[in-house]
Amino acid sequence: MAPLDRWLAWAPVLERIYQEELGRSAFSDPEAFVNWTYHWRESGHDEQWVLDRIRESPEWRARHPGNEPPAASQPPLQHGLVQITDASDGTLVPRTYSYWPNALIREDGIYCFFPFTDGVRFFRIRDRIIDRLGHLVSALGETGEGRYWNHDGFLYYVVGPQLKRFNPLNGDTQTVFDIAALHPNCRLWQCHSSDDGRTHSGTVQQIVADGAYPSIASIVSNIGSVTIFPAQGQLDESHLDRSGRFLVILENHDNRIIDLETGDSTVIADAEGAVAHADCGDGFIVGEDNHRGACIRWNLKQLARGPDILFRTWNMGHVSVRGGRCLVSDQTSLSLAALDGSGVTPILEHGMTGSGYDAQVQGSLDPSGQVATCLSNRSGRLEAYLLTL
After folding, report:
1. Dihedrals φ, ψ of 217, to 5°?
2. How many helices (H) and strands (E) does the chain have?
3. What CA–CA distance (Å, rounded) separates 380 from 376?
4. Angle, CA of 361, 367 and 372, to the nearest 5°
């Protein structure tokens, strides 16, 4: 049996789990505490084992109605890694983002785009054969910021006050919506689209002669109808969930959540679990809570129940949520975090070196969640990679 001082060291960990999962102290039942600690540590189990056992209990089910106990963590997934670019393509610009997919799976291959110093270049991958398609859309500019494939099969991109979309199969380009008349001398920034391509969001920025463009409002377009949500503080950006029902506005380090069906607005304060480095799924948002030290998931339909903790972390990195999966990019690795909180599965050490924002890997899932892209200098120079999950 372990010495008493080791048992005492385990007590705070068990107390934290009880408070988070059951809302009460582990010491409210001393006999149960001794039993837990014995079976937990004397048998060599880890913290996840305790979480799994507690979430199987009737008490946990009663506190979390409608939730099934999460399944145990799965073994590491098999994956395939393909290097897409090489020195012949030129110099990549480290401006890809986790919440904007760079890849799209179509019947004739996987289409990807990446930013280079001479503009955005497109690639098609078929059975590990790389087809270099060049600059398919000249209006994409010199970086990949604000460009994304959507589940409806279009590439969306911003040109000044307009959100446009491009069909890679026939080259057709359409204007989705235009804010020029509504907001003169402004541009769109940080746009997102629902999976069905019917609802879109963006940040309205005022164009000024000097300095950064101030963000003055969030905007939502739904089949021609446009709604404006003026900034109520220092506006960072906005996110739209995959269903198109919820708008999440990040301002003053808080999250202002708008139910676009009912018009209801709820503010989650920074200290209460507002998330950053976030991405949305269908009816939920995942991101970092820098007060709890955790990656958390908010159910946007049931905000009153509070967030679920997916895993413990400080300086989480970035998340990409698509197709029921959550890809986490931290300082060393790409991993899959189970959205039910059952664990994190490491997939790949990305090998990126360096410091500062440009050295942060931001792995991005395709709209279906089957493949991911990332940039890394693991080969000695910055290259783009495709990861099959």
Report:
1. -165, 160
2. 4, 28
3. 9
4. 35
* Tokens describing residue 307: 């967030």
> Which among 289, 342, 283 is positioned nearest to 319, based on CA atoms?
289
Q: Pick from 285, 288, 302: which is nearest to 247 by CA?
A: 285
Phi/psi of residue 253, nearest 5 degrees? 65, 10
State the Cα–Cα distance between residues 138 and 321, nearest whole angstrom: 28
What is the tens place of the pLDDT at every residue in 11-21?
Answer: 777 788 888 88
- In the chain, where the domains are located: 4-63, 80-388
DSSP-derived 3-state class of residue 270? helix
Per residue in 334-373, pLDDT tens?
999 999 999 999 999 999 999 888 999 999 999 999 999 9
Query: Residue holding tokens 């924002």?
Result: 357
**How open is the CA angle 30-32-33, to the nearest 5 degrees?**
60
Superfamily for domain range 80-388:
YVTN repeat-like/Quinoprotein amine dehydrogenase (2.130.10.10)
Is pTM, for the whole model, over 0.70?
yes
Identify whether the C-beta of residue 200 lies closer than 8 Å to the C-beta of residue 191: yes
Burial class (CB within 10 angstroms; exposed 0-12, middle 13-18, buried 19+) of 88: exposed
Angle at CA 215, nearest 5°, toward 360 and 358? 15
Tell which residue, 130, 91, 139, 82, has the closest CA to residue 114.
91
